[in-house]
Specification:
Helix content is 14%, strand content 43%. It has an eight-stranded antiparallel beta sheet, with no helix packed on it.
C-alpha cells in the first residue's frame, strides 16, 4: 500500500511557520514607543514650572530649566496689559532679593531668563513683576 500524503493544510516539513504581520508590527510599534519615551523623558529633578492661579489680574509664572541644583530661571507674565512692552522683574532666593532685571515682550507675554547658575537644592526661587501683587515660586530639588 502506498504512503498516504499529508492533508493539504498541514505545514510542509522544515517550512518556517507563517508569522502574523500584526505581531511583528505590534513589536515594532512597542519598540519605537519605548525609544520615543526614552528620548523625551525628563530626568528626575529637572525642568519644572509654577504659576499663580487667580481668575483675575496678572498671571505670573516661574520656569526652572536644568538639572538638580543648576538651573536657568525664567520669569513670565502671561497676560500683561497690551501697551506694556517691558517691566522690571525680581528674582528672590529663599525670600531674599537676588536680582532685578527688565523683562521684555515675547508674543503676548513678558519674559526674562536669568542665565544658568547654581541655584542650590531645596531652594525656593520666586519671581515678582513690578506693578503686580502676584508672586510665582518653585523649589529646586
Amino acid at each position: 500500500m502506498p504512503p498516504v500524503p499529508p492533508p493539504p493544510f498541514a505545514p510542509r516539513p522544515h517550512a518556517r511557520p507563517r508569522e502574523s504581520p500584526y505581531g511583528r508590527r505590534s513589536a515594532l510599534t512597542l519598540a519605537l514607543a519605548g525609544v520615543a519615551v526614552t528620548l523625551t523623558a525628563t530626568p528626575a529633578a529637572a525642568d519644572s514650572s509654577a504659576c499663580t492661579h487667580h481668575f483675575s489680574g496678572p498671571q505670573v509664572c516661574i520656569r526652572l530649566d536644568g538639572r538638580g541644583a543648576t538651573n536657568s530661571v525664567t520669569g513670565i507674565w502671561t497676560n500683561p496689559p497690551a501697551d506694556v512692552g517691558s517691566r522690571e522683574v525680581s528674582l528672590y532666593r529663599n525670600g531674599r532679593l537676588a536680582d532685578t532685571a527688565t523683562a521684555t515682550r515675547s508674543g503676548k507675554a513678558l519674559t526674562y531668563t536669568w542665565a544658568t547658575h547654581d541655584t542650590g537644592t531645596d531652594t525656593e526661587l520666586c519671581v515678582k513683576f513690578r506693578g503686580s501683587q502676584r508672586t510665582a515660586c518653585q523649589t529646586t530639588r
